[in-house]
User: Which sequence fits this backbone?
């Protein structure tokens, strides 16, 4: 733990964000959402309800979804962080993102990064959720355009596609 | 933006307790932060020191000790919903944990944080009270154990002294003649009303009953009037209906953003009947 000239506590942390190593000093009070948006310029995670209800600020910490608005950046030390910018790669969309496009699962787009990351995390731990499980799980991500039906269709299409690929 | 504070990283309960004693009202224990950071962001409380309990090894372990299942208070809801040990010995609690708030809250929030924050709509508090669980509190001065029923004093207030740390949640293992169920009704992140029922059966008769009501009043409470209706009675629809009505009458609900007192009273009666019916078919060690 280090102290700057202004006597504020600063903590050195190392983490990986979308596969890139980051080493920096943070203040204990810094929120992960502000760290990602203001210091790293990653604007995919959004601030909305600011109280862990809506899901627009969802990012993955070690593959597990958290609300970046209510998580201290301190908790990201030595962790692998994934934001929506880290899905896909090489200029290509992730299979789930392609399914969102194909099924018009995006309306205004504000909830989309959080939806995508939540679903990626769910499928990682449970590759074959039925519709009821999907609905229950996604009840933690709000879409104020109320585009839920197309989102569910897109997820199920992506699941079918990945099963077909797996043969 | 949060106001400035320092984070401390103790590696023992004693060290954490010493820090809490040293900084007094300026310090708070910090676990998952799901409740604490919310009220800090709102400016409702201001702490200059957070004592991170997650840096203390072993405080999130689950295990069997003699005739009890012991849960480390730093276990997250996510860890508990996925624990094979909990699924095996108390699946009702594992299912309860799987239904708390949303996946993100479950990933960060801990059982101990939930209990110590004492939000009146806590899910686990109600079940643990009905089950007859006890809580172990530790400090630099020693340790003490108290029943969950003696822990909750009022909204956001518990019997934990400022320098004490919850170090274990102890759930006695019960024989298969003990049946239990947890029923919740929720429209938001937190439930409007919850009922936990634990019945001990002997030859088709209810030898003893423990009912706890949550979300309806400032702290979870036993419905002893309804328990008395059940005692020494057969497993019978009319007995359940009478107990449910008594639980609703005795509920002492308060109106809040989740519902009016009258509405909660109705919910308590319905949930009590459902809890009793569900409990009969489910020994504690079976999935509901």
Assistant:
């Amino acid at each position: 733990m280090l102290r700057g000239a202004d006597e504020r506590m600063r903590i050195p942390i190392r983490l990986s964000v979308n596969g890139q190593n980051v080493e920096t000093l943070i203040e204990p009070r810094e929120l992960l959402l502000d760290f990602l948006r203001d210091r790293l310029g990653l604007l995919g995670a959004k601030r909305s309800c600011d109280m862990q209800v809506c899901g627009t600020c969802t990012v993955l910490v070690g593959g597990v979804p958290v609300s970046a608005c209510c998580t201290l950046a301190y908790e990201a030390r030595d962790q692998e962080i994934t934001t929506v910018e880290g899905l896909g790669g090489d200029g290509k969309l992730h299979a789930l993102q392609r399914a969102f496009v194909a099924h018009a699962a995006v309306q205004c787009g504000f909830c989309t990064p959080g939806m995508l990351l939540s679903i990626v995390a769910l499928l990682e731990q449970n590759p074959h959720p039925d519709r009821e499980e999907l609905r229950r799980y996604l009840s933690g991500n709000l879409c104020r355009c109320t585009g839920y039906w197309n989102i569910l269709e897109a997820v199920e299409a992506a699941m079918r596609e990945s099963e077909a690929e797996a043969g | 933006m949060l106001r400035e504070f320092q984070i401390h990283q103790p590696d023992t309960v004693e060290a954490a307790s010493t820090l809490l004693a040293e900084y007094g009202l300026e310090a708070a224990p910090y676990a998952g932060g799901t409740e604490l950071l919310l009220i800090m962001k709102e400016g409702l409380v201001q702490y200059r020191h957070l004592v991170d309990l997650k840096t203390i090894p072993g405080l999130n372990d689950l295990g069997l000790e003699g005739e009890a299942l012991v849960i480390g208070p730093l276990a997250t809801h996510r860890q508990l919903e996925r624990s094979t040990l909990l699924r095996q010995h108390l699946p009702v609690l594992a299912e309860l944990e799987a239904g708390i708030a949303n996946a993100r809250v479950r990933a960060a929030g801990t059982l101990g944080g939930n209990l110590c924050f004492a939000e009146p709509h806590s899910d686990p508090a109600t079940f643990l009270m009905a089950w007859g669980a006890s809580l172990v509190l530790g400090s630099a001065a020693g340790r003490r154990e108290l029943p969950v029923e003696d822990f909750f004093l009022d909204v956001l207030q518990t019997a934990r002294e400022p320098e004490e740390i919850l170090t274990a949640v102890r759930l006695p293992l019960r024989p298969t003649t003990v049946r239990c169920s947890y029923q919740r009704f929720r429209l938001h992140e937190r439930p409007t009303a919850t009922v936990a029922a634990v019945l001990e059966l002997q030859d088709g008769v209810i030898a003893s009953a423990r009912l706890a009501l949550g979300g309806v009043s400032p702290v979870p409470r036993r419905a002893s009037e309804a328990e008395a209706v059940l005692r020494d009675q057969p497993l019978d629809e009319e007995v359940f209906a009478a107990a449910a009505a008594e639980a609703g009458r005795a509920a002492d609900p308060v109106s809040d953003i989740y519902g009016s007192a009258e509405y909660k009273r109705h919910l308590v009666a319905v949930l009590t009947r459902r809890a009793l019916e569900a409990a009969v078919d489910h020994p504690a060690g079976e999935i509901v």
